[in-house]
Amino acid sequence: MKIGYVPDPVRYCRMNTSELREAFLIHTLFVPDTVSLFYFDVDRVIVGSAVPVQKHLQLDTPKEFSSSFFTERREIGIFNIGGKGKIATDGQTHELENKDALYIGKGVREIAFSSEDSKNPAKFYLLSYPAHQSFPTQKIKRTEADSVHLGKPELANERTIHKLIHPGKLSTAQIVMGFTELESGSVWNTMPAHLHGRRMEVYLYFDMDENTRVFHFMGPPEETRHLVVANEQVVISPSWSIHSGVGTGPYRFCWGMGGENQDFDDMEVIPMEVLR
Fold it and tell me: Which CATH number fits the domain that encloses residue 156?
């Protein structure tokens, strides 16, 4: 498990492009037949993946945890961006199609991943936060998502937000998770920008062509920067940072949040004249 420390807003202002990418961007996450884990100190979030191709994969406990098993004091949200796969949890088997999700609550000891077809393997995206309470493991199909259509074509921001793991669907200790799809010709400009003072977010960009890039805008409103993001890369977004992305071609993104507040509308709106 790779451990990273997210800079504060003061250090952020002095960083060059390479330093920003090293601190806030996960370049390579989905590795065949590998469980990859990245720990960040901000809200103790863990970003990970499991890509079972030729073999089943077990979610082992990193030595840094000093715990008996991964979810001894954690919960996990899992989102499948690949082919059909299975996740085994303490004797139960959950089949996940593309864009299905699984919530795993605190206390589950055995977690294993497999794919139905090695030529089209599952790509399980993992997001984990500390959990103070145990809630039941539950699968949420893409077709069961609570979907909200937002934006307008003339503003180039028409999109649909699919809420998968959230309080209206199931109970969690803190994690909220879903994905956003953009209409043709629209981008995720989500303006005016906003902050979430009581929670941080993580963004996985996916379903992008090889040469497509997303310019992800970040930073305090008065001191913005951008990251150039390729397919299946992940951006860490602390609570003090705006978040918005404009692509050179079609893209989707999975969003996940953790913190003390699960209210989706918990937003501090930033007037456009404040942005710099």
Answer: 2.60.120.10
